[in-house]
């Protein structure tokens, strides 16, 4: 709440004079996310980057290394989006429309805008990733339209890279859409319109959720920004469904819409946001170019805490100091651990470990998966989307990507962004590949086969992770507090 008071001082003043305000004790506490004007680094979000690695060959100084990482992957990225905002259509009076967008139309927001969906009649339901859902004149508003400015930012003309395919159709309407009653339906609540990546894949779908969270910060112009009384409209006519759909509960308390709701209608929105997209060039986190030697993004940490808090996922009280080891087993054709049973049996015998083997599929509710993950100290899995769960591990945890299948950066970078210890297989002579792999077109490919691993070497790498966890002060503090609480409850 301190972040909100700092961002909106009028709320702090209201709290001071409100006898029922329960946040009086933090009104004077100066804290900020990091992107606000005048935000001092000393009071910015408490999780900040570390840059222990070499900076030479990348930038000239350690400070430049830190600043580069902060801009690439932390709240500095949000700050850049805010500073890049340009007015594309300017309101003159209260009931006029307005539109502003960041560079390359990666993020836009508007007021009193019209979207004409009459062109959807007869087009069927397969509109995913289509760039012609709107045609010229089917989005607009009554405002001073700077057409050349908008179209100069339309370089990234791709479905999931920008809002250019939609915004190039913007026009100045000869009427005020809502005030002059030109709409078939008026949406009063703030609406976030989203173009989604692959919803069956956790890595790609969480690019959607992460960018929605980052967009809340870019859009932080009103105290209601982080409330859930809003609408989310998916930019396709398929009814949304996903094994990860519960994640949307962290952002809205209302039903998820799709374009079928507005087919054949002219819809007008009081407040509408077109959020950052999942496959932006130099975006987050699919195309994030990370400078070498830095780790731990406060933005990724805050996203993790936002989702866990919103879904009421809590750390479990522990009765001992055993390291909780979770092995994520793959129920897929490829990238299985062929001697998994032998490895689990060996892990169970290690004194000081509490070991569980899990399969995260549709039979396990997503919130239950998060509960397991968030209460894991060492998370083990083969290369695959399930490793995206590392975003929701405790801060002291370690990730063991058993084998990266010749894709070395994907999950090591994600672990780096989250600020976690990362380990992967080091000795190729101690693993056995089942066959050459069955890639597209019959080509050999490391991702399309299965593996067995030397058990002793496997245990050694798990112990590297466990030793890291044991060395962490926050883990020790948690265990101490946890055992005291457990003892107190027994008494």
From TrEMBL:
<dbReference type="InterPro" id="IPR007657">
    <property type="entry name" value="Glycosyltransferase_61"/>
</dbReference>
<dbReference type="GO" id="GO:0005788">
    <property type="term" value="C:endoplasmic reticulum lumen"/>
</dbReference>
<dbReference type="GO" id="GO:0097363">
    <property type="term" value="F:protein O-acetylglucosaminyltransferase activity"/>
</dbReference>
<keyword id="KW-0325">Glycoprotein</keyword>
<keyword id="KW-0808">Transferase</keyword>
<keyword id="KW-0328">Glycosyltransferase</keyword>
<dbReference type="Pfam" id="PF04577">
    <property type="entry name" value="Glyco_transf_61"/>
</dbReference>
<dbReference type="InterPro" id="IPR049625">
    <property type="entry name" value="Glyco_transf_61_cat"/>
</dbReference>
<keyword id="KW-0256">Endoplasmic reticulum</keyword>
<feature type="domain" description="Glycosyltransferase 61 catalytic">
    <location>
        <begin position="296"/>
        <end position="399"/>
    </location>
</feature>
<protein>
    <recommendedName>
        <fullName>EGF domain-specific O-linked N-acetylglucosamine transferase</fullName>
        <ecNumber>2.4.1.255</ecNumber>
    </recommendedName>
</protein>
<keyword id="KW-0732">Signal</keyword>
């Amino acid at each position: 709440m301190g972040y909100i008071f700092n961002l909106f001082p009028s709320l702090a003043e209201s709290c001071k004079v409100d006898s029922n305000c329960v946040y009086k004790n933090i009104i004077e506490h100066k804290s900020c996310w990091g992107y606000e004007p005048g935000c001092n680094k000393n009071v910015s979000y408490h999780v900040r980057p570390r840059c222990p690695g070499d900076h030479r060959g990348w930038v000239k100084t350690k400070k430049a290394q830190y600043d580069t990482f902060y801009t690439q992957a932390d709240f500095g990225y949000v700050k850049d989006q805010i500073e890049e905002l340009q007015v594309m259509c300017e309101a003159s009076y209260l009931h006029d429309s307005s539109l502003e967008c960041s560079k390359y139309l990666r993020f836009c927001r508007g007021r009193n805008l019209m979207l004409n969906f009459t062109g959807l009649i007869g087009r069927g339901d397969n509109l995913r990733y289509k760039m012609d859902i709107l045609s010229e004149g089917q989005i607009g508003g009554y405002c001073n339209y700077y057409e050349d400015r908008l179209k100069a930012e339309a370089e990234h003309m791709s479905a999931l890279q920008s809002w250019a395919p939609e915004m190039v159709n913007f026009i100045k309407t000869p009427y005020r859409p809502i005030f002059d009653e030109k709409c078939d339906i008026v949406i009063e609540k703030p609406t976030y319109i989203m173009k989604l990546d692959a919803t069956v894949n956790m890595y790609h779908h969480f690019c959607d959720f992460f960018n929605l969270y980052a967009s809340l910060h870019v859009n932080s112009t009103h105290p209601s920004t982080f409330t859930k009384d809003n609408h989310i409209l998916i930019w396709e006519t398929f009814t949304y469904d996903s094994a990860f759909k519960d994640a949307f509960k962290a952002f809205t308390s209302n039903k998820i819409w799709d374009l079928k709701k507005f087919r054949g209608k002219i819809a007008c929105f009081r407040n509408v946001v077109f959020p950052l997209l999942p496959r932006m060039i130099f975006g987050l986190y699919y195309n994030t170019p990370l400078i070498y030697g830095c780790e731990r993004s406060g933005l990724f940490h805050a996203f993790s805490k936002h989702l866990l808090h919103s879904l009421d996922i809590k750390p479990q009280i522990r009765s001992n100091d055993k390291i909780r080891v979770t092995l994520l087993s793959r129920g897929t054709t490829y990238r299985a651990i062929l001697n998994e049973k032998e490895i689990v049996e060996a892990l169970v015998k290690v004194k000081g470990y509490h070991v569980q083997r899990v399969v995260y599929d549709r039979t396990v509710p997503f919130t239950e998966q998060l509960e397991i993950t968030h209460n894991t100290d060492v998370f083990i899995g083969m290369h695959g989307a399930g490793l995206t769960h590392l975003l929701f591990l405790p801060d002291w945890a370690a990730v063991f990507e058993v084998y990266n299948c010749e894709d070395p950066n994907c999950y090591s970078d994600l672990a780096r962004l989250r600020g976690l210890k990362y380990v992967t297989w080091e000795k190729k002579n101690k693993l056995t590949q089942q066959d050459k792999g069955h890639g597209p077109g019959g080509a050999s490919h490391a991702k399309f086969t299965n593996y067995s691993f030397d058990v002793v070497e496997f245990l050694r790498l798990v112990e590297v992770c466990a030793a890291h966890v044991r060395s962490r002060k926050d883990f020790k503090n948690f265990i101490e507090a946890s055992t005291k609480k457990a003892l107190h409850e027994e008494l």
